[in-house]
Amino acid sequence: MNAGFMPDIKHIVAYVWRVSYILRCRTPNFRSALNQ
Q: Which domain of life is it from (predicted)?
């Protein structure tokens, strides 16, 4: 992996974390849906 590829991974992880956080806030049964 080249040095220019790592920042992209960090941005993707941050984006996915932010989306999942928003979904968790908007969906009361988020954990219940994951357990199904």
A: Bacteria
